[in-house]
Design a protein that fits this description.
mainly alpha
Length: 116
């Protein structure tokens, strides 16, 4: 393991909080819209998966006389549907956030006063 206090280390130092990012890594309207489209595609796919899993579980009830088996089955089904729904929500919120970021950047560029 390398020594973290070694001054001859070739790793880059941490950025200062006030330092700006290089121009190539700044978010642009196009990047935000493309990211939003990709995220919404994932959200739609996960939504479709969630609905198909829920319908599959609803059409096949657990057949058992043992109450423990039924409770574990219900818990597992709830966890599976919940994880798919969580993924849908995360990607959906990311899509909306990226879309709103793109709108904010566009408005900032439109309302920016020209340099005199």
């Amino acid at each position: 393991m390398s020594d973290l206090t070694n001054s001859e280390s070739k790793s880059q130092s941490l950025k200062v909080a006030g330092e700006t990012l290089p121009a190539k890594s700044q978010p642009t309207v196009l990047r935000c819209l493309i990211g939003s489209l990709i995220s919404s595609a994932f959200a739609f796919g996960l939504y479709s998966l969630t609905m198909s899993i829920a319908l599959s579980f609803a059409s096949k009830p657990v057949h058992s006389a043992n109450i423990t088996v039924i409770k574990i089955g219900v818990a597992v089904r709830t966890l599976v549907v919940g994880m798919a729904a969580l993924g849908t929500g995360v990607f959906g919120i990311a899509a909306v956030g990226l879309l709103l970021l793109g709108v904010q950047i566009m408005l900032q560029k439109l309302l920016k006063k020209p340099a005199v």
